[in-house]
Design a protein that fits this description.
- This protein has eight helices and nine strands.
- The protein is α/β, with parallel strands linked by helices.
- Strands 1-3-2-4-5-6-7 form a seven-stranded mixed β-sheet. A two-stranded antiparallel sheet has the order 8-9.
- It is globular and about 45 Å long.
Length: 234
């Protein structure tokens, strides 16, 4: 019986619906709901069924060592009638190369179904988005990366062959949303700001000091971006 339960539980995780996440959030809060996201298998997870009126595919990409909770509010509020919401789960211990390759393949596979594909990546996931935008998909891809260490570090430059992007493909749109280094727990002790990188074709903007009365640090950055993107649609 235990094996059957675990098998069914894993199937449910594989087919996680945004309504399940919303219900968990409303009942138990973001930290409990976030654990559902961290238990997903690696790969692209559609959080809702495909419908004819969905003209945009939105792919959310988490950062290193995510605990999931920072993505609960964003995913719930990025869910719109005309978009199909998805979440890319990946192993962030190690090189970003495989995630970049696999997401690019997914875009190539799915681009005929949608008028627009939007990538939203936070932290290490934002680094992935910035590299994907250097590709030419013969299709406009819009990428938003927030609190992203675009310069990389010694380890990924040395062992992963990572080179910071200098220019995105002319067909794509890119937006670099940077936290204030001194307020970001991931970056404040570094000698220089790893977000600060000039990329041709990318619009860069520094985030404010506060968000809803809280210090706007690393994890709040994706919630701020969600509200900002929604305000542009209204």
């Amino acid at each position: 019986m235990r094996l059957i339960f675990l098998f069914l539980f894993s199937l449910n995780l594989f087919s996680l619906d945004i309504d399940d996440l919303r219900t968990s959030f409303e009942k138990d809060g973001a930290f409990v709901a976030g654990k559902i996201l961290t238990k997903l298998n690696n790969g692209l997870h559609f959080l809702e069924k495909e419908r004819d009126f969905q003209n945009t595919l939105l792919i959310a990409i988490h950062g290193r060592g995510t605990e999931g909770y920072e993505w609960v509010y964003p995913l719930i509020n990025l869910d719109k009638e005309n978009n199909r919401l998805s979440f890319y789960r990946w192993n962030t211990i190690g090189c970003p190369n495989e995630a970049i390759r696999k997401i690019s393949l997914e875009i190539d596979r799915l681009k005929e179904k949608y008028k627009k594909i939007v990538l939203v990546g936070q932290s290490y996931g934002g680094l992935v988005v910035s590299k994907i935008l250097t590709d030419d998909f013969d299709f406009k891809v819009e990428g938003h990366f927030v609190a992203a260490p675009l310069k990389g570090n010694f380890l990924i430059r040395t062992f992963c062959g990572y080179t910071p992007p200098r220019k995105i493909n002319k067909n794509n749109l890119g937006f670099n949303w940077m936290t204030i280094k001194e307020l970001d727990g991931e970056f404040r002790n570094l000698k220089s700001d790893p977000q600060l990188l000039e990329i041709e074709g990318v619009v860069a903007k520094r985030l404010p000091e506060e968000y809803n009365g809280n210090r706007l640090g690393h994890n709040w950055s994706i919630s701020w971006l969600t509200d900002h993107l929604n305000s542009k649609q209204n």
